[in-house]
Amino acid sequence: MAAEHGQKFLVGEGRIGRVLIAFMAIGFVALIAAGIAAAWVTAEFTRHSAAVSHTYEVELAIADTRRLIEQGETTRRGFLLSPNTSEFLKAHREAANALPRSAKRLRQLTYDNPGQQANIRILERELRTLLALRSRTVELVLAGDFDTAITEFRQEQSAERLREIRAVFDSMAREERKLLEARDAQQARSINLFYTVLAIAGLLLLAVAIAALLVVVRYTTDLTQSREQLQQLNESLEAIVVDRTADLSRANDEIQRFAYIVSHDLRSPLVNVMGFTAELETAATALRELVDRVEEQAPDALTEEARLAAREDLPESIGFIRTSTQKMDRLINAILALSRQGRRVLAPEPLDLDRLVGTIRDSMAHRLDETGATITVNGALPPVVSDRVAVEQILSNLIENAVKYRHPQRAVMVDVSGGPLGDRIWIEVADNGRGIDPRDHERVFDLFRRSGTQDQPGEGIGLAHVRALAYRLGGTITLRSALGEGATFRLSLPATMTLQEKA
After folding, report:
1. Known EC number(s) (predicted)?
2. Cα separation of 145 and 466, whole Å?
């Protein structure tokens, strides 16, 4: 039932997530489209604005050039009428000096307009003639030849030439006015397009926002209902968990009592077997002595079967029985040890893992010297609050196994490292020993199961004990290894063991 409700909520959350992501994607695409359109419209608007501004500059240049021509002609006539007035001559020379620069600027501003360039060529031709005549008139007046100056002025048809120049300027002005009207229209279209794009993007974003808001409101309503259902479900689950926990605790206690009782019940007949084995061994010794005397005093009375039975078969059988009983005794002791560990109350306390590993290393100093093994702690081990005895037993077992199952061709090197991982910590014990076949990675954690060549003493309970202790501490233990490449055991524990984890 809980799984069905959880799946329902997960599906709802996944669907609302996909819908919101879709709306966000649409909004994002709309923003990108609006940005691209706005950038394009802005570029067009800037281009059109630059064109309009250029047109105004051309009109100002036309007006300035025309003014300078008119000013030059007016000041020349004034100088002819009043040759003794220096102001006319000064104004004439200023206009004459400024006119070439103004005409050059006008040519530069209209270089991209073939029609205007044609007008510029006509204008420059007329200006060259006009400037030459004006210069001739001023020189004659300055030389005192007033009659010749006036006669040539009347003959040069300056009025007709000025009308032609004005006609050129009027043509150029009309051309720029047409360009200005066209560019103003383009600029207006760009502005309208810009506002249209903004309006469409705004409407699209508004639609997306409204749709997303409606979905969120609906999801919030569904979520509120789901939370109410979850609260009701949690209330019922809490009662179920309490009952199941109590059942598990009773079952665990019963299993521990059963293991303890079975171990004691097995030990009783085992003690009898071991006792009778000792009696058999004593009787076998007496029987061998009897066979030896018979063989010395009456060898004909002793058969070969009797001699073999007394000297070989019976001692060998007793040896087998003693070996089996000793192994059985070790297994029973292991079961009792596991049973006692299951009943022991855990006592969490702050642990200094560096000091703990140092203590283990000191306790193994003699064995480390014999095997040439080294134990190294890489970096500072993380702090942890847990049961000291259990953690020490786990690390001791892992380090002792690393020294015990060493590679025959290299010295033992054991590296201990660790670090925090969220609200948990990890500790790794890595060695360069013989390694463990990947097919046996789970098998080695089973009770009474071992891997590889059985050339070392042991009953196959160490790693089973380690995993049981790790589970009791609220942790896990995993293995990475390959044959001939060493083994790495990774222990994961809560950084702080809670009451729930101690249960």
Report:
1. 2.7.13.3
2. 130
Question: Which of 416, 446, 414 lies closest to 431, judged by CA?
Answer: 414
Residue-level pLDDT at 415:
92
Nearest to 440 by CA among 421, 425, 460, 423: 460
Answer whether 469's CB lies under 8 Å from 341's CB: yes
What letter does residue 85 receive in the DSSP assignment? -
3-state secondary structure 398-447: HHHHHHHCCCCCCCCEEEEEEEEECCEEEEEEEECCCCCCHHHCCHHHCC
Is pTM, for the whole model, over 0.90? no
Position 352 scores a pLDDT of 92
**Euclidean distance between CA atoms 65 and 83, whole angstroms:** 26
Rounded to whole angstroms, the Cα distance separating 248 from 251 reads 5
Task: Name the residue type at position 95.
Answer: A
Biggest alpha carbon–alpha carbon distance for the chain = 187
The separation between CA 5 and the C-alpha centre of its own chain, rounded to angstroms, equals 32
Q: Which amino acid is at 116?
A: Q
The whole-number pLDDT of residue 416 equals: 93
CA nearest 410: which of 441, 374, 361? 374
Per-residue confidence (pLDDT) for residue 8, from 0 to 100:
44
HSE of 329, CA atoms in CB hemisphere, 13 A? 12
Residue with tokens 């003699």: 366
Quote the CA–CA distance of 106 and 97 in Å, as a whole number.
15
Q: What's residue 235's pLDDT?
A: 75
**Residue 205 confidence (pLDDT):** 75
Report, as ranges of residue numbers, the positions in the chain whose pLDDT lies below 50.
1-11, 251, 455, 501-503
For residue 82, report the phi and psi dihedrals to the nearest 5 degrees. -130, 75
Note the pLDDT of residue 247: 58
Q: d(Cα 425, Cα 490) in Å, to the nearest integer?
A: 10
DSSP state of 311: I
CB 424 within 8 A of CB 410: no
CB 479 within 8 Å of CB 437: no
